[in-house]
C-alpha cells in the first residue's frame, strides 16, 4: 500500500495526468459548443482539439525541468519523449486517420452497389493537426507552470 501512496504523491505524474484530463475535458466542451449536443465519447477520444497526448507530455517535460533542472538528464529524456509523442500524434496517427476515412468511403460505395461486406467502420479521428498539438502542448506547459509557481514552492 505504501507504493500506491508514493505514486499518488508523485507531483510530476499528477500534474501530467491533470493536463491530460483537462485536455480531454476541453474536447467535450468544444464539441458541446460546436454541435450543441453532449457527446461523452470525446472523454476517451484519441484525436481532436486539443491534443491530450501533447498536453500530457508537455506538462511532464515542463514539470521535470522545473523540479530537476533544465540542464538535467531527466529533462532531456522527458523533452525527447515529448517530441516523439507529438510527432506521432501529428504525423503517423493523422495519416492513419486519413487512410481510415478513405477506406470507409470505399466500403460505403461498395454497400451502395449491394455488395455484402460485413466490416466495421474504421475510426477516423486518430491523430491531430499541428495546431491541435500546439494547443495541447501550450495547455500542458501552462498547467505545469502554474503548479511549479504555486504548489511546488509551498510543498
**Main β-sheet, in a few words?**
none
Our Rg estimate from Cα atoms comes to 19 Å
Q: Mean pLDDT, as a whole number?
A: 83
Residues in helices, as a percent range: over 70%
Distance between the termini: 23 Å
Q: How would you spell out the order of helices and strands?
A: HHHHHH
Oligomer: single chain
By DSSP, the count of extended strands is 0
Shape: elongated
Strand content: under 5%
* SS field, number of helical segments: 6
Class per helix and strand makeup? mainly alpha
Low-confidence stretches: none
A few lines on this structure:
The chain is mainly alpha-helical and 155 residues long.
Explain this structure to me?
With 155 residues, this protein is mostly helical. It is built from 6 helices and no strands. The two termini are 23 Å apart. α4 runs parallel beside α5 (92-112).
Secondary-structure map with pairings?
Blueprint: H1 2-8, H2 11-35, H3 52-68, H4 73-90, H5 92-112, H6 130-150
Helix pairs in contact: 2-3, 2-6, 3-4, 3-6, 4-5
Amino acid at each position: 500500500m505504501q507504493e500506491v501512496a508514493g505514486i499518488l504523491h508523485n507531483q510530476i505524474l499528477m500534474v501530467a495526468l491533470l493536463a491530460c484530463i483537462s485536455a480531454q475535458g476541453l474536447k467535450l466542451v468544444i464539441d458541446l459548443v460546436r454541435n450543441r449536443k453532449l457527446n461523452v465519447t470525446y472523454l476517451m477520444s484519441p484525436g481532436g482539439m486539443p491534443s491530450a497526448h501533447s498536453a500530457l507530455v508537455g506538462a511532464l517535460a515542463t514539470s521535470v525541468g522545473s523540479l530537476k533542472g533544465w540542464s538535467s538528464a531527466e529533462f532531456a529524456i522527458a523533452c525527447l519523449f515529448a517530441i516523439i509523442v507529438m510527432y506521432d500524434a501529428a504525423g503517423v496517427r493523422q495519416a492513419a486517420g486519413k487512410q481510415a476515412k478513405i477506406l470507409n468511403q470505399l466500403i460505403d460505395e461498395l454497400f451502395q452497389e449491394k455488395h455484402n461486406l460485413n466490416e466495421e467502420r474504421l475510426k477516423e479521428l486518430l491523430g491531430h493537426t499541428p495546431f491541435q498539438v500546439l494547443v495541447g502542448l501550450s495547455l500542458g506547459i501552462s498547467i505545469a507552470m502554474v503548479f511549479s509557481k504555486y504548489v511546488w514552492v509551498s510543498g
